[in-house]
Specification:
Elements: H1 3-6, E1 19-20, H2 26-35, H3 42-52, H4 66-75, E2 76-77, E3 82-88, E4 94-99, E5 105-112, E6 117-120, E7 124-126, H5 135-138, E8 141-144, H6 147-164, E9 174-177, H7 187-198, E10 210-214, H8 218-227, E11 231-235, H9 241-247, H10 256-269, E12 275-281, H11 289-298, E13 304-310, H12 324-336, E14 341-343, H13 368-387
Parallel strand pairs: 1-2, 6-9, 9-10, 10-11, 11-12, 12-13, 13-14
Antiparallel strand pairs: 3-4, 4-5, 5-6, 7-8
The protein binds S-adenosyl-L-homocysteine.
């Protein structure tokens, strides 16, 4: 016996490699079960337990064999980000702060209406794009979310609303990928999470009720069209490149004409479905009648409707919300141009849960947050000096 073979055999620490089953769609889950020598149909059973019944304890999954129930905890787990804080707005909107690893937090918002409940889901920790009117941008960027962190937001919301149970109608009927981050810059995990949202054995949301919003990552709009079956919203916000380059800087890479071509292709692949063009209303910046007329021109031949979003202010923002009457004039011009145009109702403003107000808490890797905080401090100093 040599010295090496006399050494104790290290015990494999399986727990560190445990597969989080929330990271898998039904296909991935079936592959997982095959890889551990089980039948692929176990995926269907687990999917229902986890996503429909909210059960994460394998011991309670009574249609699995006892042996399998006992074996699974050593191989895998079911883990969603935990709710660190819940805030409820006067209008019923709820905002959850969800704890991720090492000091990062994201936000998810639930907006109840008479006949639907919309969940606004985040796709990244912060955002790498630097849209000048969005507070998430001021936070900088840390990383992409994993599938379990994306679908985990839906899982937590559904389970929490069920637990509150104050109103049976109060549940998630719609999901919008309009929280923190740019979903098309985190394509694969977002795509898998979308598949789980749509899966009839999970949340069974119809494609019209799952909307991905993008600032316009053109190649991935095409990819989305090929690989997913969901609705599309585009953060347009400006009717010409000069202005959009400032408001949505990714426009320098994918200018309006290229973006509109991608939208036409998307609509062609999904006949009968309209893209939503989001347009934030910034006083004196993009809200004049001439902007409305330019908007009609660039939207020609794009099957779409327009959603005007009154700007939601945040600390340090350099913009103001357009006046109600200016929004109305803008809207009527676009309507006359032949486009259905709605004005988004601002919800959850009292708890900073409205569009563009989500910030979470992130370990910024871009230093953008530090620069922003310094800028606010500067302006506050200037302000207090001028009052002195
Ligand atoms: N990155 C994606 C997903 C974020 S969606 C995208 O850009 O589409 C968030 C939506 O709210 C977008 O339409 C965004 O442009 C809009 N928004 C951002 N900041 C806002 C603010 N301060 N007021 C109103 N809407 C805002």
């Amino acid at each position: 016996m040599n010295a090496l073979s006399a050494m104790p055999i290290p015990i494999q620490v399986i727990s560190e490699n445990k597969r989080n089953l929330l990271d898998l769609d039904r296909k991935g889950l079936a592959e997982f079960f095959v890889s551990i020598g089980e039948k692929p149909f176990r995926a269907q059973q687990i999917f229902k337990w986890v996503h429909q019944r909210g059960i994460t304890d394998f011991a309670l999954m009574t249609d699995l064999s006892k042996a399998l129930r006992e074996r699974l905890p050593s191989l895998c787990e079911i883990k969603a980000p935990e709710i660190a804080k819940e805030q409820c707005s006067l209008d019923g909107t709820r905002k959850w702060l969800l704890r991720l690893d090492s000091g990062n937090y994201i936000e998810t918002v639930f907006i109840p209406e008479k006949k639907r409940g919309t969940l606004c889901v985040s796709s990244q920790v912060g955002c790498a794009l630097n849209c000048t009117f969005c507070s998430t941008a001021t936070q900088g960027f840390n990383r992409n979310l994993t599938v379990s962190e994306i679908i985990g937001q839906v899982w937590q919301a559904v389970m929490r609303l069920r637990a509150i149970g104050e109103d049976k109608e109060c549940t998630v009927t719609n999901v919008v990928m309009m929280g923190m981050g740019e979903p098309l810059l985190n394509f694969e995990p977002v795509n898998i999470a979308l598949a789980i949202m749509r899966d009839e054995l999970a949340y069974a949301l119809p494609r019209r009720r799952v909307t991905l919003s993008t600032s316009g990552i053109v190649p991935n709009i095409d990819r989305l069209s090929r690989e997913a079956d969901v609705s599309l919203a585009v953060s347009l916000h400006a009717p010409n490149d000069l202005l959009r380059n400032v408001l949505v800087p990714i426009n320098k890479k994918y200018p309006i004409s290229v973006l509109m071509d991608a939208c036409r292709r998307f609509a062609m692949d999904k006949p009968g479905r309209h893209i939503t063009m989001e347009y934030v209303m910034l006083q004196g910046v993009n809200d004049k009648p001439e902007h409305a007329r330019q908007l009609i021109k660039i939207l020609q031949g794009v099957p779409c409707k327009v959603n005007l979003i009154p700007f939601n202010p945040f600390k340090g923002a350099s913009y103001q919300r357009s006046l109600k009457e200016d929004i109305e004039v803008f809207r009527s011009i676009v309507v006359k141009g032949g486009f259905i145009t709605t004005v988004r109702k601002t919800r959850g403003e009292d708890i900073d849960a409205a569009c563009g107000q989500l910030v979470g808490q992130i370990i910024d890797r871009t230093k953008r947050n530090a620069r922003f905080v310094a800028k606010i401090a500067d302006t506050e100093e200037i302000r207090s000096e001028s009052y002195a």
